[in-house]
Design brief:
single chain; alpha/beta; Nucleotidyltransferase, domain 5; 3 domains; five-stranded mixed β-sheet; two-stranded antiparallel ribbon; 51% helix
Length: 367
């Protein structure tokens, strides 16, 4: 609020539209540039100081923000979904977007996103590459199973996609050369994706236990359903856990209900599904594990507890008991399992926060 010049940037891959707003003279200074960082910095430095800059988060990433911050320029990256736009404005141009950002910055109406470091962004890319491999593998397996189903071939020898199932798949053969080639190429594609997924798993495991994320990963693994991949994914995607509380992290992950209240009426709907999609999916999948009875920790869980601190073990044990009891209470009230699981995931986010931030309060979310 104390800068003289507020600068809005509309950043694209091949061009950058800038607009500076001088609070002392009221002058509006538009400028169009290439995406070269040095050129952008030179224009910003030429403006009346002190200067602060904002641009929207998007596909161009955070490189420009890190560059400007390193040069001593106060820079914010705005959350696009939180920008206030006039409902009657039907003209949208790069110059108008840059001016709009500059005005919001001067008014203090920018909701900024956290700017990760280059190493944190690289770790996040690794996690998301593994997520892409998971999706590719699922689609590849669906193609194979549906190809066989169209020919009336159904596997009935136990659980699918095990070693025995893969041997059964290798024995399948078709008389038509075109169909046999299609089937062979589908199997080959699936094995290539499996190899890629395994390489990514190895890299993630190595980074999880030999990096700055290791203490958080060890603590999160004290909870049921939180494997190494899940713990590392949550640590990378959320980053700084201390910017949340046990009750606000659920809202950040989009696990709280939508609401429309007016006067004495209050109406709640499905969850908002805002925020980090990958972290939300990890928590929802982990929440299903707490439906099973929890009388004593499993051998795998005990082995993970040995690598964690005594405080994390105590918190993890308490969290596992409470989350299972919550599952039981929802089932006794005849809640739909899908809805109950989302509620468990919301509370699980609070327990993850308490472990990752080293806080003794899980701040359970109300029903």
């Amino acid at each position: 609020m104390f800068e003289r010049t507020s600068v809005g940037l509309d950043v694209h891959a091949r061009s950058v539209a800038g607009c500076a707003l001088d609070a002392q003279t009221g002058e509006i200074i538009p400028h169009r540039m290439s995406p070269d960082y040095a050129e952008i910095l030179a224009w910003i430095v030429s403006l009346p100081a002190p200067v602060r800059v904002v641009y929207e988060a998007g596909p161009t990433g955070f490189g420009l923000a890190r560059f400007l911050l390193a040069a001593g320029i106060g820079t914010l990256v705005a959350a696009p979904s939180k920008l206030q736009r006039p409902s009657g404005d039907r003209v949208k141009t790069d110059a108008k977007d840059a001016l709009h950002l500059a005005r919001l910055l001067k008014l203090g109406e920018i909701t900024a996103v956290r700017i990760p470091s280059a190493d944190q962004e690289a770790a996040r890319d690794l996690v998301r590459a593994r997520e892409d491999a998971r999706g590719d593998l699922m689609r590849s397996r669906h193609r194979i199973s549906k190809l066989l189903l169209r020919q009336g071939i159904v596997y009935s020898g136990g659980k699918a996609w095990t070693g025995a199932h893969e041997l059964w798949l290798a024995r399948q053969h078709f008389e038509a050369p075109a169909r046999q080639l299609t089937y062979a190429s589908s199997l080959e594609a699936m094995h290539e994706i499996l190899d890629r997924r395994d390489r990514l798993d190895e890299a993630i495991t190595a980074m999880a236990y030999q990096s700055d994320y290791t203490p958080v990963v060890r603590s999160l693994e004290c909870l049921r359903g939180i494997s190494t991949l899940t713990a590392f994914g949550l640590a990378v995607e959320i980053g700084d856990w201390n910017r949340f509380t046990g009750s606000t992290i659920g809202a950040y992950l989009g696990l709280v209900p939508t609401e429309h209240s007016s006067g004495a009426s209050r109406s709640q709907g499905s969850i908002t599904k805002t925020g980090n999609t990958h972290a939300r999916r990890l928590l929802v999948e982990a929440a299903w594990h707490h439906r099973r009875p929890y009388e004593s920790p499993s051998r795998l869980l005990r082995s993970r507890w040995e690598e964690a601190t005594s405080e994390a073990r105590t918190r993890g044990h308490a969290g596992n008991r409470r989350l299972h009891n919550r599952w039981i209470s929802y089932l006794e009230r005849r809640k739909r399992p899908v809805i109950a699981n989302v509620a468990i995931a919301r509370e699980l986010a609070g327990w993850c926060w308490s472990l990752a931030s080293g806080t003794d309060q899980a701040s359970p979310v109300p029903n």
